[in-house]
Amino acid sequence: MNKPIMAKATAVWLVDNTTLSFKQIAEFCGLHELEVQGIADGDVAAGVKGFDPVQNNQLEQSEIDKAEADPLHRLKLKFNLAAVGEEKRRGPRYTPLSKRQDRPASILWLVKFHPELADSQIAKLVGTTKPTIQSIRDRSHWNIQNIQPIDPVALGLCRQSELDAAVQKAAAKKAREGAVMTDDERRRLVSTEQSLEMGDEPKVPSSISGLETFTLSNSGEELKEDERDVADADSFFNLPNDADDEDEDDRD
């Protein structure tokens, strides 16, 4: 295990019973240094009873003595044979009760935007069962009319790195099977890191590329003075003399 059981209660005990620095306690308990400082100030973990890591076989007293004498010394969790292999999660992911109602929405999102994912991958990502996934795939779920697709990462049901890993695994499987993917499917198989590294797409469609530099000027050169069609303003208002004589004849 990387951190002791009842980490916050252990931090409370270490703050109250040792002279360890906040950083040493935070690193040992897997907390933030400011959180440990909040415990010392009474703003965090109010009412939490301290949990003695020495008495509960998680830390040696000699380790505490070394750390108190050397602020740079890191506390080492006592080896517990019974805890070997406990970090690896077995079975489906546990989903808190407050988020279980969001699972159908996340399943619908995965089925809609990542149809290449297998049911086993979706079950592992959001902590559900294959019958539930199948009922959403074939739209036989009892509440399918009211379910709106929502990203499971936004709902806190899985991490973005886990979703990207599952998508990449699905992409590798499709590549091995030689399946032909559409452009839309290929875009969905790109992870977040890869999409952020891509350059900006051109704003001008390729079908009209080059028109943005089109100009009506003659190679950028201005027309010469004698080539311009310059009209005299008086010519628009003064009629020729012949026209005046014709008007007088008409009146006669």
UniProtKB/TrEMBL annotation:
Positions with biased composition (Polar residues): 206-220
Record field: compositional bias (Acidic residues): 242-252
Bias (Basic and acidic residues) ranges: 221-231
Region entry Disordered, spans: 178-252
Database matches in Pfam families: TrcR
Protein name: DUF1013 domain-containing protein
